[in-house]
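User: Hi! I have a protein structure encoded as tokens and I'd like to know what sequence might fold into it. I'm fairly new to this, so please keep things simple.
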């Protein structure tokens, strides 16, 4: 069973930065893509960003575009989410997810992903 472990969350002031990491228990080159999602209290889990392991093409939610950067390091089997210019509305539990194969389901949907981490809390104070 693939395990994904997130780290790097915490408390930061508005305008600050955090970098989240997602370490996989197996070679990430075997995955099609990795995604980051977040879930705030009382809200549904929402798409944040996605990266294809091969080629590295990226996609972002409009709410984080130009502030967040997703990346991966295949040698370390780790994905990252660099978050800059953080806002209070970015407060949520952040989850990384891995998708094993390409499929017709949109990458913005949680159901498109096969494996999930346990989540890491990000809190942005105003």
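Assistant: Happy to help. Inverse folding works backwards from shape to sequence: for each of the 126 positions I chose a residue that suits the local structure. Here it is:
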């Amino acid at each position: 069973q693939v395990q994904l472990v997130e780290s790097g969350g915490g408390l930061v002031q508005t305008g600050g930065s955090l970098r989240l990491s997602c370490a996989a228990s197996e070679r990430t080159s075997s995955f099609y893509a990795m995604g980051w999602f977040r879930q705030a209290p009382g809200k549904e889990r929402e798409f944040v960003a996605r990266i294809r392991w091969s080629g590295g093409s990226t996609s972002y939610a409009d709410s984080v575009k130009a502030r967040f950067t997703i990346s991966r390091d295949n040698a370390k089997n780790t994905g990252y989410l660099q978050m800059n210019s953080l806002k209070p509305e970015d407060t949520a539990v952040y989850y990384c997810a891995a998708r094993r194969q390409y499929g017709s389901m949109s990458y913005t949907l949680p159901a498109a992903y096969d494996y999930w981490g346990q989540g890491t809390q990000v809190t942005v104070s105003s």
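A useful reference point when you look it over: The first strand starts at residue 4 and ends at 7. Feel free to ask if any position seems puzzling.
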